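User: Can you help me understand a structure? I only have the sequence.
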Amino acid sequence: MEEFQRFTSLYTFPSVRVFAAAGVILLLARGLYLPASFLIAILLILGSCRLWADYGLRRLVTSREAHPVRLFPGDEASLSVFIRNGKWLPVAIEVMQPFPDGLEVTSRGGIDEVSDGQPVTFLGKSGEDLSTFRIRGISRGCYKVPPGKISSRDILGLFNRERTFGGATEILVYPALLDFEDPDLAQHYLMGDIRSDRPFMPDPTRVSSLRDYTPDTPAGRIHWKASARHGKLLAKVLEHTADLRLCITLDGDSFDTPGPSMEEALSLAATLAVWADRKRIPFGLVSNVSRCGMSGPVSIPVGSGPTQVRLALEALARAELPVALPFGEFLRKESRLLPWGTTVISIRGEIPAEALSEVTPS
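Assistant: Let's start by predicting it. Here is the structure, written out as tokens:
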């Protein structure tokens, strides 16, 4: 941890102490023992205070932990700072923890408050303290909580020593979820649990009945056991089924700058992802926006599972401009990996009129 020195009083300047020592010598030389004794006492006090401040940060164990580190707007998290004094010398310390814009400190427990608002903790021999910051996510984003700073002072407050503790802690605030009614989306995936009126490509695993075999019926549909039992060839009558597979796409090219339009689009994408997860609908997420703290655009394959919605929400929380690459080029690459029959939901911002005039049918 990096250690700093900060002057808090005129007496902390070395030149002042040098002049005081010179004054002691002159007073002793002239036989003025009482003033000399007074200056000697001052020098001893200053030296003791300086040693106290210097030694205050030694054998001081600090650790920091945040939980949870994934929030929705309005949710709260705790950031705990643990301090243990591993020496005999008592110490008065101040713990300072800055937070980035977008995270609001709602309360702080485990410390005493002095009159000027500076938090002070007094630790005796092997003393321990746990300071807890309650922070609330205000707006979507990826936030880096910087290292904290701890300072030690002497009993008179003349000398001050500081050092940092803890590394950068990442806290993600997901997009806000919207009020959402179940959409009526057509099922196009070729196999599932829902009956479909599609006249082609039946589900080979769903047999509804049997019928007499005809020459135009594929041999693979012959029900051999039933044919042997009835003494004639019988064919399976297959049901047509469908299921829903979603791919949520977000066009970053439609946003010139970050703003309400982009935040609403991200919230809509997050709402669709959460809805699909609750309905146990396999879904994916594709967007050409950049990701804070990570490289490349957003590409989450269509799938399901306990981590699918978390991956989508984290990607949307990290979303930022500029885009990683053109949306059309990226979507063409990703479309080759989509399962046949996937329903694609495209989310865009406002499209300028001049952009629409440049679109030509193909």
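Now, to help you interpret it: The chain has four domains: 8-56, 60-173, 211-238, 243-357. The first strand starts at residue 3 and ends at 7. Let me know which part you'd like to focus on.
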